[in-house]
């Protein structure tokens, strides 16, 4: 398998993309820069749950509705061989895992990795009080009052890589990457909870190279967000300049095999000063649209 690099954007409106347990579950923030942060583990959780809902077994999940540790999860395995694990657990093929078992610890380094996501815009937090119909203590006739923290609007960007060398070791399949593409388009919407409703995927690129050596670097360094109004609150109030990114890809076209993509029409893309459709500016590449 060859190397791949990934750019992924989704937005969050009046929701909590990734609560910080050390901050009363407030959205994770770089307060100095007013930037919203989302961990790679949060993104992987969406992907895992989506794949599990499709019928693919995963390693990192609950058992019989209960949270278990890694050792507890392995107790349900029919076998504990490398062949069985890599054939049956798609998230191990993708993300790797450590399986601590007294007699035979197994560690797999996942070929698919993301760094932390961050917002392209400055983000404001919304804090409100919420009241439950259930009391905080038995005998208390009033409902419990808590805090609800959300972002007003955040356009979040992730960068990821697929290591061709590591893919060989975990036996990652081309079909797995096709499922990853679909998960990036559908998982966030389909895995929505009360605090996560309001998130939508806006842009996805998976650039597949011709070898297992090529790395062009973090694609987020080559995109620029423009805000049409102060205090952005909606996807229609921004545009994304992809000129440098497209030029980066064109200049390395001989290293690229295919480009897998989807682009939401609501996100305005700009190339060389004009609004464009992504498929048009990348028309010279072997394009595969994620359906």
TrEMBL record:
Pfam families linked to this entry: Cas_Cas7
Gene Ontology biological process terms, A to Z: maintenance of CRISPR repeat elements
Record-linked InterPro entries: Cas7_Csh2/Csh2, CRISPR-assoc_prot_Cas7/Csh2
Protein name per Swiss-Prot or TrEMBL: CRISPR-associated Csh2 family protein
Taxonomic source organism: Fonticella tunisiensis
Higher taxonomy: Bacteria, Bacillati, Bacillota, Clostridia, Eubacteriales
């Amino acid at each position: 398998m060859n190397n791949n690099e990934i750019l992924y954007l989704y937005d969050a409106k009046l929701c909590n993309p990734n609560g910080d347990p050390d901050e009363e579950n407030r959205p994770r923030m770089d307060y100095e820069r007013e930037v919203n942060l989302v961990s790679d583990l949060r993104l992987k959780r969406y992907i895992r749950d989506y794949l599990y809902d499709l019928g693919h077994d995963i390693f990192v999940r609950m058992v019989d509705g209960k949270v278990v540790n890694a050792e507890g999860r392995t107790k349900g395995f029919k076998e504990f061989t490398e062949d069985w694990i890599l054939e049956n657990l798609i998230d191990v093929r993708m993300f790797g895992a450590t399986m601590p078992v007294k007699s035979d610890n197994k560690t797999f380094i996942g070929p698919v990795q993301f760094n932390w996501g961050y917002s392209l815009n400055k983000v404001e937090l919304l804090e409100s009080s919420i009241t439950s119909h259930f009391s905080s203590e038995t005998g208390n006739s009033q409902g419990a009052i808590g805090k609800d923290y959300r972002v007003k609007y955040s356009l979040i960007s992730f960068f990821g890589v697929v290591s061709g060398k590591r893919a060989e070791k975990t036996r990652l399949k081309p079909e797995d990457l096709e499922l990853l593409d679909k998960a990036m388009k559908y998982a966030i919407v389909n895995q929505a909870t009360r605090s996560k409703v309001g998130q939508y995927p806006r842009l996805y690129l998976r650039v597949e190279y011709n070898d297992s050596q090529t790395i062009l670097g973090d694609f987020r360094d080559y995109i620029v967000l423009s805000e049409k109004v102060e205090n952005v609150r909606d996807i229609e109030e921004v545009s994304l300049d992809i000129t440098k990114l497209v030029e980066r890809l064109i200049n390395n076209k001989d290293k690229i095999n295919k480009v897998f993509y989807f682009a939401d029409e609501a996100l305005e893309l700009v190339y060389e000063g004009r609004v464009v459709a992504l498929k048009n500016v990348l028309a010279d590449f072997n394009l595969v649209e994620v359906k």
